[in-house]
Amino acid sequence: MPESPVLTVSDLHVRLGSTHVVNGAGFSLAAGRTLALLGESGSGKSVTARTIMGLIRPPHGRVTAGTVLLHGQDLLAMPEERRRALRSTTISMVFQDALSALNPVLSVGYQIAELFRAHRGMSRAEARRAAVDVLGQVRIPAAARRAGDYPHQFSGGMRQRVGIALAIALRPDVIIADEPTTALDVTVQAQILRLLGDIQREHGTALLLITHDMGVVADMADRVAVMYAGRVVEQATAAEVFARPRHPYSEALLGAIPRPHLRGRELAVISGAPPDLSVPDEGCRFRTRCRYRIEDCERNPPEHDLGGGRSTACHEWEKVGSA
Amino acid sequence: MSRTVLRVTDLVKHFPMRKGPLRRTVGVLKAVDGVSLELRAGETLGVVGESGCGKSTLARMLTAHERPTSGEVDLLGRPLHKLRGAELRRARRRVQLIFQDPSGSLNPRMTVAASVREPFDVNPDLAPRGERDRRVRELLELVGLGPGHAGRYPHQLSGGQRQRVGIARALALRPEVLVCDEPVSALDVSVQAQIVNLLERLRAELGLAYVFIAHDLGVVSHLADRVAVMYLGRVVETGPQERVYGHAAHPYTQALHAAAPLPDPALRGDREAPLEGEPPSPLDPPGGCSFHPRCPLARDTCATVPPPQVEVAPGHQVSCHLAG
Which residues form the signal peptide (chain B) (predicted)? Predict the structure, then answer.
């Protein structure tokens, strides 16, 4: 990748209780680009996102190793106060359920205006105008009137727009969107994805899109980082992963989605179950379900750099995806 | 052509909305508003639509969990909507409902084996007492669960395994029709594939017919022989899978296809602009064609006159003024 990364996560390890949820995850996000963090439940993708945002704190969770560099500064080594100053202004997050990010007893306009007052030192009136402006940017009809409404008065799709408005209000360089459309209907999902794409192009924001949906990845992402058992097992451009995956797990995932040419045939199935992450394991975490398994898989594979920003954590990567 | 196992005619379900201390009726929620469908033996009918379109209420009426306000449900020649008491209990064995989240239908304090055995206790004539343990083992094996799972409790199972238990329970009654309401929506992709394969295998082995309800167009396309598209309590388009997917004639179906993200980056960019707005409330559906406020092709008549049903190809019906 010739572009300079705005966000680089390296060798991140996070524990929730006795479970090693994230085990050496690493990826980087270039300015103005979209990186999809793709994985199934339990892959550690959401915990990774929350760790970047500083939402994983003792006693619930602990970062045991790793760095999260935002513009070259390590967020994990920073005092909480400096970190708080960066949230919303430089990096912000859109949640799956916008209600969880909103205060139910304050109008949405007030909540957005608070950001301008706290970080930009605006007066009440200025902040309110700025808030209405942002609500307009996320295409909420009659924004000036709706700014006085409370979160419960918005439909699911409109609420998600409010969540996006909160995230983009201070023009951060990086937006993390954690399953932003999973709870929405397909026509509304299309609207929200298009809105995110438009905003990203207009503002030049980098987007870390956390999703389990390969359709969303294909539609939105420049690059993909596939996560399994707390580790990024493959990184590549979206086109490369779909054309020729280089990790057995990516290959298996792609085989499991119904597609027109598979009609009337059995879908490929990943046998077995994800590993128990509270049990330490020196080997590749996918080996018990992998059809390429060899003896070497008893030790954790290193990240093979395949050039052009592409990498895979598999000993047998040359054999993968050729079928 | 194979025989019809399930036929619904002009099915309607209205829920009165009550408010205030006297619970006065302030409005009517038209969850299902005149649906007619037919399911043939061994066939899978896919039903797609967004939240609030009435697909779950339809599922509950097809399985006699809900009584229709009006209209008919004909199951294997018997009028399900008219039956009561013992007659109803016997008839509804032939049609079973599979839920999205089977944990809601599994007793957390019963083992897998006990859950699958329960239908035999409720319906003693299904199998003599001495044979029930064997039947339970057979059913678990049929859905891909081993003897090791029999003694476990629901919380010790994964989502996919719980769904298998739900299917085993339904099969205990030897139904001819399974109504599956979003059976794989809560599951991870890799697990979803297992359940989809299982349903396909059971259909072939047991000669089942399915009504497969989902919002995921990809899964429905994979399984369905015929597809019905619902919007605000009505079926707006129905036809063979290859027609509804390849030659969608209703603007809403076309919008659904355009909105569904396809797992192929090469197709990015040539998608049409997404449909605007959100489905209106079924409490106060728009007049004329209920899709007209969101329809990019709407004309004046669409706002006032309900669209007629037009057959645009054999077995392919569309309710739209502009079709045909």
Answer: none
What does the buried/exposed string (b/e) look like for B248-279 if buried means 16 or more CB atoms within 10 Å of the residue's CB? Answer: bbbbbbbbbbbbbbbbbbeeeeebeebbeebb
> Which residues of chain B make contact with A181, given a CB cutoff of 8 A?
none
Q: Do B50 and A239 touch (CB under 8 A)?
A: no
Could you report the per-residue pLDDT of B49-106, keeping only the tens digit for each?
988 899 999 999 999 999 999 999 999 999 999 999 989 988 989 999 998 887 788 8
Give ipTM to 2 decimals.
0.85
Find the CB nearest B261 among A219, A263, A270: A219
* Closest CA of chain A from B113, distance in Å: 21
For chain A, the structural domain boundaries read 5-90+172-319, 100-170
* Segment 163-202 of chain B within 8 Å of chain A by CB: 188-190, 192-194, 196-197, 200
Q: Are B68 and B81 in contact (CB under 8 A)?
A: yes
The reply to whether CATH 3.40.50.300 applies to domain B4-94+176-186+207-319 is yes
* Shortest distance, CA B19 to any CA of chain A (angstroms): 19
Inter-residue contact A14 to A67 (CB < 8 Å): no
**3-class DSSP state of A31:** coil
DSSP A4: P
- pLDDT for the residue numbered A1: 44
Locate B185 and state its tokens. 């929506």
Distance set, CA A296 to CA A283, A284, B63, B151 (Å)? 8, 9, 53, 36
Per-residue pLDDT of chain A (323 residues; tens, 9 = 90+): 446 899 999 999 999 988 999 999 999 999 999 999 999 988 999 999 999 999 998 888 999 999 999 999 999 999 999 999 999 899 999 998 888 889 999 999 999 999 999 999 999 999 999 999 999 999 899 999 999 999 999 988 899 999 999 999 999 999 999 999 988 888 889 999 999 999 999 999 999 999 999 999 999 999 999 999 999 999 999 999 999 999 999 999 998 998 888 888 889 888 888 888 888 888 999 999 999 999 999 999 999 999 988 999 999 999 998 75
Which residue does chain A place closest to B222, by CA atoms? A263
Cβ within 8 Å, pair A215-B261: yes
Facing residues of B322 across strands?
none
Q: Which residue ranges make up each domain of chain B?
A: 4-94+176-186+207-319
- Give chain B positions within 8 Å (CB) of A216: 261
User: Each residue of A67-80: pLDDT tens digit?
Assistant: 999 999 999 999 99
For the domain bounded by A5-90+172-319, which CATH number is listed?
3.40.50.300
What is the token pair recorded at B43? 């066939």
Asked if B193's CB is within 8 angstroms of A269's CB, the reply is yes
pTM here?
Answer: 0.90
Note the Cα B293 to chain centre separation in Å. Answer: 26
Chain-chain contact of A190 with B276 (C-beta, under 8 angstroms): no
Q: Which helix (H) or strand (E) holds A208?
A: strand A206-211
Mutate to test the interface with A, among B149, B190, B272 (most CBs of A within 10 A): B190
Instruction: Return d(Cα B97, Cα B102) in angstroms, integer.
Output: 10
